[in-house]
Design brief:
Blueprint (H helix, E strand, L loop, with lengths): L3 E2 L2 H13 L4 H13 L9 E2 L8 E4 L4 E7 L5 E8 H4 L1
Parallel strand pairs: 1-5
Antiparallel strand pairs: 2-3, 3-4, 4-5
Length: about 90
Amino acid sequence: MPKISWNKAFIKILEKFFKKHPELRKRFYERVCLLRDEPQNLKLKNHKLEGTLKDFNAISIDQDNRLVFYADNDGTFILFDIGPHDDVY
């Protein structure tokens, strides 16, 4: 089972996201737990990104918002960015 990790920069991004979308706090944590437990679960819509983000994946938080992450060498998922589709890609 992969571990989930984030750094101080992501925490700042997440705090801003929750200020704009407090109703998505619970859904965010549910999706992160699902990512940890079942990374290929269809609810996540886990997909590889392209272009400058080719080393990253993204999952859906809801219809409009995505969580961008990457896997480090030991398989830990590092959370990188969260927000509307057009802002994080």
